[in-house]
Amino acid sequence: MNIEYEVRYAVGQNEAKNYDTEQLRDAFLADKLMQAGKIYWVYSHYERFMVGSAVPKDAPLVLETIADLLKTEYFTARREVGIINVGGTGKVEVDGVTYELAREEALYIGKGSEKVTFTSNDSSNPAKFYLNSAPAHHAYPTKKIGKKEANVLHMGSQATCNERDINQLLINSVVETCQLQMGLTRLNQGSVWNTMPAHQHDRRNEVYFYFDVEPQQAVCHIMGEPKQTRHIFVSNEQAVLSPPWSIHCGAGTSNYAFIWGMAGENLDYDDMDKFLASDLR
């Protein structure tokens, strides 16, 4: 079985205040994603949210259950899955139906889909399927979301170095889900700040997966309470787990893209508690 996983337990804001750099990275950074020929998961105790990747090379990869962890016969017995491809073109087969995903296209897989298989069209340029999963109470249909189906928001400005396109892919105005939401934000050339003003939402967690970060470049991801901020430097194809008590924003040494994924109590995308830059400490 080509699957690897680790478990991250929840950390409170009082504990995180005393963490040094390595402790912060160990608790909140997912730095083993996109391993060739393998499915990899981080199981987080924030909303039981799972962050993962599948990179099929010469052979297909099957989304199998993790028996010791999930205690289910198959992976989606009680879960929904969101997929966004950030590599070469590939295919996802769900219970005998095949969906081809080009780069930056998405697929929602509903609860109860027993067999899911990942393949790459070209092993020399494999698909890189970024995966999010959350517990599900209802079985919604599997649906592909291409670039034309996304709801696109043009936000920010060149003057504030945060001109960006927010591609809402898995949100309730585009596809029905239980609690999972995902999208892809790309910063324009010359812009480096994401998610300004910074925000938190106590009703759900969020995970940022950074990609298209050039070699020798990095993103400084800012987290923590608004008056007790901390930072983590993130490289290409790494993700940061953001607890409900934490803000999330960041700045790169060049422009980049990131995928945001979240789950929790509601599906209101704009349910955010925002903080101006002048409010942060």
UniProtKB/TrEMBL annotation:
Molecular function (GO) terms for this protein are: 4-deoxy-L-threo-5-hexosulose-uronate ketol-isomerase activity; zinc ion binding
Which top EC class is named for this enzyme in its record? isomerase
Q: What is this protein called?
A: 4-deoxy-L-threo-5-hexosulose-uronate ketol-isomerase
Give the metabolic or biological pathway: Glycan metabolism; pectin degradation; 2-dehydro-3-deoxy-D-gluconate from pectin: step 4/5
Q: Which gene name does the record give?
A: kduI
Give the protein family. Answer: Belongs to the KduI family.
Please tell me where Zn(2+) binds in this chain: 199, 201, 206, 248
Q: Which domain of life is it from?
A: Bacteria
Quote the record's cofactor note: Binds 1 zinc ion per subunit.
Question: Might you give the EC number(s) for this enzyme?
Answer: 5.3.1.17
Keywords from UniProt, A to Z, are:
Isomerase, Metal-binding, Zinc
| Cross-referenced Gene3D superfamilies | Jelly Rolls, pectin degrading enzyme 5-keto 4- deoxyuronate isomerase, domain 1
Query: Biological process GO annotation list?
Result: D-galacturonate catabolic process; D-glucuronate catabolic process; pectin catabolic process
Which cofactor(s) does the record list? Answer: Zn(2+)
Q: What reaction gets catalysed by this protein? A: 5-dehydro-4-deoxy-D-glucuronate = 3-deoxy-D-glycero-2,5-hexodiulosonate
The entry's function note states: Catalyzes the isomerization of 5-dehydro-4-deoxy-D-glucuronate to 3-deoxy-D-glycero-2,5-hexodiulosonate.
- Check the record and name the Pfam families matching this protein: KduI
Transmembrane spans? none
Organism listed in the record: Paraglaciecola arctica BSs20135
User: Which InterPro entries does the entry mention?
Assistant: KduI, KduI/IolB_isomerase, KduI_N, RmlC-like_jellyroll, RmlC_Cupin_sf
